């Protein structure tokens, strides 16, 4: 079952084309990785899904409904949640309270403080942060602040989770832990779109990979197919390294 579909999606800022005719589908229950060099349009595409920016052309449908003109809060209520590349927890709130924000404003739509606390505690338990629930998130190391981003998104009750570089800057051990946790989210029935520059991570968790370059989709396939794709190699390393057979 297709949960999200992009058809000829385009985004321009004046004369600058950031995305051009991007087409792909995301099936329910899978992890789709989006990769590409800096400036490829990856985060812009996530911003279009979550409606943080407007679509210039094409359509995006979620569970069969066109979401081009939805507001960000409407997208959240529909069951789409996301993390952000730059981790910025809410100042003045504890770890638990940060996650409670997601419980109130997502699909879970907590009706009371007690319900929000319960939802937030469950999300913190999933990502392994329940022991720091009362701490100021700004004192946490990067790996735990990344997990806090994921917990806040989980508290929204998403069916589709957008992960924007949640594994960047992590140690080898932290990377392995985050990969394991993301795969567990898939096992819970959450569909995931993940942007990553860490190739070990994105190749290890993804069912399919979509490659963007200069705003266009240049490849799509299973991880083992993508690593051998000459267009992808050229986009990342240059034509000197893309020796076609």
Question: Could you explain the architecture of this structure?
Answer:
It is a single chain. By secondary structure, the protein is α/β, with parallel strands linked by helices. Helix content is 36%, strand content 25%. It contains 9 helices and 10 strands. It has a 6-stranded mixed sheet with strand order 6-7-8-3-9-10, sandwiched between helices. Strands 2-1-4-5 form a 4-stranded antiparallel sheet, covered by helices on one side. A hairpin with a 2-residue loop joins strand 4 (57-62) and strand 5. Helix 3 (95-105) crosses helix 4 (113-127), helix 3 runs parallel beside helix 5 (142-154) and helix 4 (113-127) crosses helix 5. The model has no long low-confidence stretch (mean pLDDT 93).
List the helices and strands and how they pair.
Elements: E1 2-13, E2 16-27, E3 31-35, H1 42-49, E4 57-62, E5 65-66, H2 72-78, E6 80-82, H3 95-105, H4 113-127, H5 142-154, E7 160-164, H6 172-187, E8 191-195, H7 199-205, E9 208-213, E10 216-221, H8 223-226, H9 230-237
Parallel strand pairs: 3-8, 3-9, 6-7, 7-8
Antiparallel strand pairs: 1-2, 1-4, 4-5, 9-10
Helix pairs in contact: 3-4, 3-5, 4-5
């Amino acid at each position: 079952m297709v949960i999200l579909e992009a058809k000829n999606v385009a985004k321009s800022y004046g004369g600058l084309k950031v995305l051009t005719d991007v087409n792909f589908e995301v099936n329910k229950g899978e992890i789709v990785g989006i990769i590409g060099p800096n400036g490829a349009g990856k985060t812009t595409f996530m911003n279009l899904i979550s409606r943080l920016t407007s679509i210039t052309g094409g359509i995006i449908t979620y569970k069969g409904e066109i979401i081009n003109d939805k507001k960000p809060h409407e997208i959240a209520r529909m069951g789409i949640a996301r993390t952000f590349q730059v981790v910025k927890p809410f100042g003045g709130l504890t770890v638990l309270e940060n996650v409670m924000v997601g419980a109130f404003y997502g699909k879970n739509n907590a009706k009371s403080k007690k319900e929000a606390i319960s939802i937030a505690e469950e999300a913190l338990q999933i990502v392994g942060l329940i022991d720091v629930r009362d701490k100021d998130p700004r004192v946490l190391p990067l790996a735990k602040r990344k997990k806090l981003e994921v917990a806040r998104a989980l508290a929204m009750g998403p069916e589709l989770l957008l992960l924007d570089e949640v594994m960047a800057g992590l140690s080898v051990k932290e990377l392995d832990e985050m990969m394991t946790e993301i795969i567990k989210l898939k096992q819970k029935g959450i569909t995931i779109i993940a942007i990553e520059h860490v190739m070990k991570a994105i190749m290890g968790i993804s069912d399919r990979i979509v490659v963007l370059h200069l705003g266009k989709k240049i490849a799509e396939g299973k991880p083992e197919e993508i690593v051998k794709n000459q267009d992808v190699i050229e986009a990342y390393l240059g034509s000197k390294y893309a020796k076609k057979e």
